[in-house]
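The protein record quoted in full:

***
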Amino acid sequence: MNRDRYIERLKADLDRWNAQVDAWEARLREAQGRLHWEYEAQLNAWRSQRDVAAQKLRGIQATTSAAWEEMARGADQAWGDLAAAFEHARSRFEEPAPQRKKACGE
């Protein structure tokens, strides 16, 4: 894969993940109590990984064509970490919300 295609693939991944995170943020706004804090923690963890990966992407964009392959190895690791964080967050956001127990008389 050449440098330009590699950069476009990484950008497409980020765009796709960011779009899904936007949807999860809507769920975060609706969640209450412990669930709200769990969702927020998942999103914050993912955002941290995204920031690392985006920094690697910017590094590749700034390198010469001769040096980009070395930078790509670091980006591949960051992208793997980001993908794992995304899948972990997805598992939390896509599991059914716990049902509230009804009190007597409801």
About this structure: The helical segments are 3-30, 33-62, 68-94. Confidence is low (pLDDT under 50) at residues 100-106. The longest helix spans residues 33-62. Residues 6 and 72 are 8 Å apart (CA to CA).
